[in-house]
UniProtKB/TrEMBL annotation:
It comes from Deinococcus deserti (strain DSM 17065 / CIP 109153 / LMG 22923 / VCD115). Signal peptide: none annotated. InterPro entries: GAF, GAF-like_dom_sf, OmpR/PhoB-type_DNA-bd, Sig_transdc_resp-reg_C-effctor, WH-like_DNA-bd_sf. Transmembrane segments: none annotated. This is Putative response regulator. Residues 490-588 bind DNA. GO terms for biological process: phosphorelay signal transduction system; regulation of DNA-templated transcription. It comes from the Bacteria.
Amino acid sequence: MYEPLSDNELRRIEVLARYAVVDTLPEPAFDRLTTLAARLFSVPYAMINLIDEQQIWAKACFGTKTGSLTREHAPCVRTIESTQVMVVPDARQNHRFASHGVMAEHGLRFYAGAPLVTHDGYSIGTLCLLDEQPRTGLSDEESSTLQDLAALVMDELELRLAQLTLARDAKAKSQMLTRMTGAADHAQHLAAVTQLLAYDLTVDAYLQATGPLVAQATNICSVTLHARGESMRAEAPSWTVPVQAFAGEHPPAWTRLPNVTLDMDFPVFLENLRTAPGFSDWIRDGVGSAAFLPLTTVEGARHVVSYARGGEAVVWSPEDRQLLTAVAQGLNILLSRWEHIARRDMARNDKPDVHLGTQATLYSAVHHAHLNSLELTLVRLSVRGAPLDSEWARWLTLMLQTGPGEHRTACRLGDREYAVISTDGMHDLQAVLQQGLSGGLKGAQVQVGIARMPEDATDADALMALAEARLARLESAGLGNTSKEEPRAPEVLSHGSLTLDCRERVVRGGHEFVKLSKQECALLAVLMQHPHQVFSRERLAAAAWGEVRLESDPLVNVHISNLRRKLLRLHPDPLVHTVRGQGYSLQGAAEA
């Protein structure tokens, strides 16, 4: 029949649990104490026992193995009922142990035990001596010695508890620090993503700036913006984690989005692609988790932002979801902003049939063609030597917009700077310019920079930067009337042991190669075309990216720093040098 434990026994068991020592592995400190006790008292067996509500647990033993015994008829149970040493000279002469319990079962006759008393007065176990031969008992001095040894056992238990407490506290503080650091990092990432919206960034530039931040926080390997309902194509504005070593000539397949079509109204976070149908290509290419966030701009344009995370399936944490959502919202704000600017520019036009746009119109048109994977031709024009009046400007604009199918948009970028975006190839450009030079543009000098997508560039920023750079080279060379299209810049550039593939954005050196971001590739292309020439930050930004803004200096510094770090994997010496007070230059890259 079960007998309920007394309040004192319940409290004693709670105190024992406080030490977290029951059923633990042997420890040298306690083994030494049992060895010392056996040696001092010349007994074959010495044990440190801990007693809970049902069993006796041996923490340390001398002369026998550790283990557990039932409490029934065990002398240690009687020992903890007092604070004094209990001695059984001959168990065969003691009616409680003569024929029952552990003493009789193991042929033991002598027992002496001192209770292990805690600082708050509870006996949680014993230090006991055992012998197969009877003894006369213990003297007062021997009893005091055994009690002292029991006190040493308690000192070790208290020390062990203090160490456990310190370890738990240290672990808790470490976890708290980790959580606080993670929260601070998360706040900084959110702030950085939000602060970028204060700059006049394009969608591509925003993706390139936020991509590394999001990857650091969430371990994503790519983020891509898609027009709603279209196939997921790598030509869309995107950022992918730089891949330093490829198995073949090109980056692995997971850096290119599979041909999956999604049309959704709510965010979808897939934590294990193996449980989602239709993602076999993603899984084969190493993607374990993905997220898709739908966007709708103020004008009603619909897009989807996709995130891919490589490796094993991992849960999207609340912080991950919040950060990915913040980036998607930033993209939506940018898309809506450019839509508004384009509509405003069109509304300000005095003659709607002319549709004279601005820089915002130019970007909006290029971005639209990019998202819809249209072939596009961008022409940048600089006109010198002609009278500057609105009628002449409108005549030029109207003339440039007139073409096969009239799939053209003309923009005025400055007093004498113009651009034309065309989806018809602008094959009649030479004839149009000749007509203008013999008519309303008679006596003028027209210089042209042409870039085509996807032939010359695969994204909006690169296309505009390339056309601007080609126009700038003509102007710096002082060339006159342009009667034919400018030859395209080489797709592959070499400098010493390095080779830059501008189309793939890959730099090779010997048998190694690294992947560059779009901005890094544009900067390196300018430096490789003009080795040893010093470029100021403003001039380098203009040549590489096609424009100079207030934030160009720090952006150039950041991308040059990243470029240097990547080039060090291919060449032992720094190649991009800083010339104090002047800018940057590319030095020799002889075979290492």
